[in-house]
Each structure stands twice: as structure tokens, then as C-alpha cells.
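Much of what follows relies on a compact textual record of a protein's fold. The record below shows the convention in full:
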Amino acid sequence: MNPRSWLGLDAEAAPAHRRYHLARFLILRLLGLIYLVGFAIVLFQGLPLFGSQGLLPVGAFTARVAGELGSSGAAFARLPSLFWLGHSDGALMAAAWCGAALSLLVLLGVTNGVVMTALWALYMSFVHVGQDWYGYGWEIQLLETGFLAIFLCPVRTIAPFPAARPAPLVIWLFRWLIFRIMVGAGLIKLRGDPCWRDLTCLDFHYETQPNPNPFSRNLHFAPHSFSAFGVLFNHFVELAVPWLMLLGRHAARIAGCFLVVFQVTLIVSGNLSFLNWLTIVPALACFDDGFLSRLLPRTLAHRAEEAEAEAARRAPGWRPQLAGGAAAVCAISVAWLSVPVVTNLCSGHQVMNTSFGSWDLVNTYGAFGSVGRERREIVFEGTTDPSPGPATDWREYAFKCAPCDPVRRPCVITPYHYRLDWQMWFAAMSSPNRYPWTLHFVWKLLHADPGTLSLLAGNPFPGTAPRFVRARLYVYRFAPPGSGRWWDRTLVGDWIPPLSTEDPRLLEALRAYRWLER
């Protein structure tokens, strides 16, 4: 393939196995859905989590970062975000609504580089000020994926099948992304928890993952041989399959099928937010029009053929050349930024889910380098009794998805994400000192804060507020099928002791983090 072909600048129609109109169509539609979910999460959860009265307010965070780095300019250079210009609740919600509207347009068929750039900039703005709530690998993965998607699109048109070819060079950048995602995940497992090497990790994972779904219990009680096969399949897909993309179009198609099927199995087995949906996006770059035209409705295949014919009639011209030049610059930049990523992959001290630059353009990924052997959960309880004692009536607060009531059925929410529930999963493996916002959460419960309560499944104190709140740590295990309950749990002890609004320990902690005026 000559350089003009790599940049999509041929003056003649390309054969179906060298065209990617259908792949672009699917990539952008799925990416639009994921962006829409991401902005919907902000709309429904953003203000209680990081708004001006949230658990981790953006204002306090930006002030602290600017103070540490010396100025807002330096802070922007380190964490680029539109919210350095203003972070009022109105600004946060306006940005989220704008992102949701643009995401919906992309989902409905808009294919435009300006729209994709706006989505990338808006979502990056939330990621860089979202603090603990946005500390997940799929956030920077969405930013990298969204950045590459900009170069798939023309600037002057919005049609779902524009008469502008997706540059094969950009398609290969998507393949490089899925290669790093999978190989990074595979290597971190082999280098991490020994259960990935002795094929026992899935004996625990389905029970101890952040938010199991109802099917997770069936997988947990499956024979060990089934779980061991699952680990072997995981290693095969993550460490062997990506190399097939280098062996020609037929091998790339086979790789794409394995990658997509693998992600679907992960979607079925748990609630990992939009991570697996997002990972399907670059995997779609393994499929050319010749392959996808056999699977998709004939109408779509026909429109892709028309777009290719129109692109051939229009070439050459300065606009396609400009787009090709932009794709080439993008590829050179990705190659340069990939140097520390490849170094990290080759290192015996590999880190996962890390960016090596402020803009999160090329990152390193990985998941479940270690697997918990037991599931720990924090259960918050309140009481209206004036003084806690042996006979105190404690009532539990239920989270929307995290296990609480042992008889409650696990949720099915993917690709949505309850961010508070996930952070509670992490907190249960540590202490309030590591997650001080949990004390702010207690303070909010003591005041029956409506925003905080909106993050929960219900309020056990309607019309009033508790006098004391505590947090208790339990070990949860799947109850056997047919037992009439979903979980068995064993109390470990207090994670946070009973606290009231007058407790000096709580007041001191809140003042230390400037969540309460002195």
C-alpha cells in the first residue's frame, strides 16, 4: 500500500477489503453511546459527588492544585480542563447537557471532527477535576479513544457516511490502541497475582468484583474446570490474539471476532461500567468493509459503497490532503508518545491505567492485576436514638448497586456506573484515613442532605435526620442458589464508630479538609 493509500487519498475506489466506511460508522455510533452514558452519569450524580456542596467539591480541589503548582495556568497545564475558567454548579451542568446533546447527535449519525473534538474536550474537563470519582482506567481510555476518533471524521459535513475516506493510518492507530489495552492487561495479570498463573483467579473474581450481576453467582458456583478454562481463554485473548492483527486482513478479522466476543463475555459476567463497551470500539477497527458488509444490513453496505465512489470522484483535492496530513501528524505524535508506554509494558515493574502526559493522549492500561479472595463491604447505619447502646435501633442505608441487604438481587447496570458504589468497594479494602471523604459522607447523612441521599437506593429516615451514623464492615459471600437469599454476610466490626454532628473527631476531620468552616 503506497503512502497515499495509507492516508485515504487514492483517486480510485478502493476494494472492499481496504475500505473502512462501515468500521467508522460503527466506531462512532458506539462511541456516541458511551459518551452519552458518561455525560448522563454527570447529570444524575455529578453535583452530589463534586459540585459546590458535593462530597469532593471541585472548587476546593482546583484551589488546592493551583496553590500547590503556583498558579491556575500551571494547574491547567498539568490538568487541562475548561473548569479552570469557572466551576459553578451551573457551569458543570451546562457542560454536561452540552456533552449529552452532542453525544446523542453522534449516536444518531453525525460524523464530524468539530463535534468529536468538543466531546473530547468536555469529557476531559470532567475527568481532570473529578478526583476519586474519575480515577478509573476507562476514563483515560475514553479520552484516548475519543481523541483518535477526531481524525476519522471530516470537518465540513455531518452525514453518517460522508464522502471522505477514513484514513487506514488512523484505523491502524485504533488497532495499536486495542493491542496495548489487551497486552497490558495480560502482562499485568501474569506479573501480578499468582492466581492468574495457577488458573484459580476466576474462582474468586465473580464474587469479589466491584459490582456483580445476577449471573455472576452462577459463574461463581461453576466447577473449577470452567473457571480454569476462563483464565486460559483470558490469557489467550489478551496475550496471543492481538498479534494476529499484524498478519493480514483475514487474521485481523479473526482477531477482531475474538476481541469482541471476549468483551461481550465480560459484559455478561459483571457490571464494569462502560469499560468493556469502550474496549469494543478499537476492536471494530479490525473489520474492513468487505467483512462488515456481510454482517450488516444491505442498506448500510450500499451507503458505504456510495460514499467510497463519491470519495473517489472528489479526489484529489486540498481538503483530503489536509485531512491526510492531520492523520500523519497524529500518527507521528502517537508513535513518539508511545515510547514510555512500550517501556512500561516491557518493564518488570509495569504500572497500569496511567497516563504519561497531561492530555491523556497515549496511556497504559490493565485490569485486575490482583484479585481479592474475599468480598468486604461497608454498610452505613443510622439511628434517631439520643445515645447509642446495646438496644439501639440501627437502620441501614442501601446503595443502588453495591451489595447491602442479603436478600436483594444484584443489579444489572452496565454500561451505566454508580460512582459512589465503586468507591465504597475500594474503601472497604482500606480505612477512612485513606478515604476521608467517607467522613464527609457521614456528615451529609447526619444532615439528611438531599443530594447525597439521591446517590442511595432509599432513605431509612424519611422526613427527619439520624442522631448518629456509623459504618460497619462485613465479609459477603454468595449464598448458594435456592437458599432464598443472594448473599451471606459476617460482621467484622466497626469501620467508622458512631458519630454525631457534635463529635469533635468528625468536626476536626471536616475542618482539616476544609469541608467545614473553622
Q: What stands out?
A: The chain has two domains: 3-364, 375-512. The beta strands are 354-355, 363-364, 375-383, 395-396, 468-478, 487-499.
